[in-house]
Design brief:
By secondary structure, the protein is an alpha+beta fold. It is built from 5 helices and 8 strands. The protein is 29% helix and 36% strand. It has an 8-stranded mixed sheet, sandwiched between helices. Helix 1 crosses helix 3. The longest helix has 15 residues. The two termini are 26 Å apart.
Amino acid sequence: MYIETDRLIVRDFMLKDADDLYEIMGDDETMENLEPAYSFEKTSNFLAVFCIEKKGAAAVVHKKSGKMIGYVLLNEINDKIYEMGWIFNKKYWGQGYAYEACKAVIDYVFDELNAHKIFAETIDVVKSAGLMKKLGMKMEGIQRSQIKNVYGNWADIYLFGLLKEERGK
């Protein structure tokens, strides 16, 4: 995958991304709504196996600095149905990078891969759900007390989806 936007490049991961990915996945605040922060070893293994070997995610690179600032999960779960997710370096939060990257990936998935649907899920009803709505996704449901958060408390999972024919509405 290679997508270019005004400020970003979305590309396949490379082993040289290990330090930047650890800066994201090794941070407690960044990982708070996902799972406990990763060690460098766990990050490196995740990078090699999931991101590179299985091509389960794409790297988001800041054009100006060349720094890898984000991770976009993209998996075809069923025929033409894609799961999407994202994690960004907290130093780049609130600047529109996640929206810019995710919008470009959504366009790519619908236009180039001819997807029928993209879906995402979150326990973060504020930031992540807000971005999902901004991307045009609609809430499809809530799985109540479905998962334990990083603090061991039960949390709801909010499910969002976007159909190809709904894009741009």
